[in-house]
Amino acid sequence: MSYDHGGHWSPAAAKARGSYDHGGHWSPAAAKARGDGAFEAFVRHPATATGAVSLRVQAADAAGDTVTQTVYDAYGLKHSGGR
Length: 83
Known about the structure:
The protein has strands spanning 13-19, 27-33, 39-42, 51-60, 66-77. The protein is elongated, with a radius of gyration of 15 Å. By secondary structure, it is mainly β.
């Protein structure tokens, strides 16, 4: 992994995914670079989505080192529909 002088890892790319069945199937989410070495992801819920949403993020640095983090049941949906 490559770290800057402050001990922070600087990802060059990131991918995000969301799951509505506890990780059985993953749907891509839009990941966007913020320009400060950080990324943000936008999860769009399908109209049929209910229950909990699990999240998975994969990041890579310029050297090709990678990290994957998964949070099962990260948050719940109060209702179904497109948000």
